[in-house]
Amino acid sequence: xxxxxxxxxxxxxxxxxxxxxxxxxxxxxxxxxxxxxxxxxxxxxxxxxxxxxxxxxxxxxxxxxxxxxxxxxxxxxxxxxxxxxxxxxxxxxxxxxxxxxxxxxxxxxxxxxxxxxxxxxxxxxxxxxxxxxxxxxxxxxxxxxxxxxxxxxxxxxxxxxxxxxxxxxxxxxxxxxxxxxxxxxxxxxxxxxxxxxxxxxxxxxxxxxxxxxxxxxxxxxxxxxxxxxxxxxxxxxxxxxxxxxxxxxxxxxxxxxxxxxxxxxxxxxxxxxxxxxxxxxxxxxxxxxxxxxxxxxxxxxxx
Length: 303
Fold this sequence. Notes:
Helices cover about 75% and strands about 0% of the residues. The protein is mostly helical. Strands 1-2 form a two-stranded antiparallel ribbon. The longest helix has 29 residues, at about 220-250.
């Protein structure tokens, strides 16, 4: 399989996994039949990070010496905190009031922030065609946001701002991996990043009372199953694959996974009773057009 084809396949799989993560977060917090609260948003965020950290701990111990090479501890800590830890809590907070489909739509700010940070801070070379592609994708995102009112609950600006802040964190982490951790194996970066955050995640899991909920809530097992899948597959495994994609392609291409996430999130929303309109479908095609322009029609002409 050609490298380019393989990268696109990885992008598609990641979109499916992360597009379903919003649904898993929602199911971890509420029992669908009654709407009863199971785990609160803080518990879900802490447990997600704790589970991912435990799964990756053997690899973190294996690569522990990588932390003490030059300034890698600083860069890996940035990846752990901004690329994983803080967004885990920001997204669960947002989903206390926003639907999973609408949260997935807002997540698509990542490629825009990635582009801006890459250009202004990391001096990444861009072409005019790439900028056009990202602009088209951004227009599609805006259309999705405007069309998403029927998919969202009554969330205020603080819930939407939480997702925007999380996407900025993702963009910083993504560029850090690409430009500051070159040559470090994706598995090493991922496992060490979660290793750095394992202790605070463990403490917060107990401080926020997740263990008490497990013993007292009748739907705790149902919620925990979804959080466990979120932590293992949607976090630990997916981040390893994503970091590999960053290394084998470009930061802009890797961040384009968030263009596809709204499509997956909204389609899953359909299956659980949310609605979708023709306008939303058209907006999705605009987003995909932007991805195509940015990654396939880009040339070497500099901005």
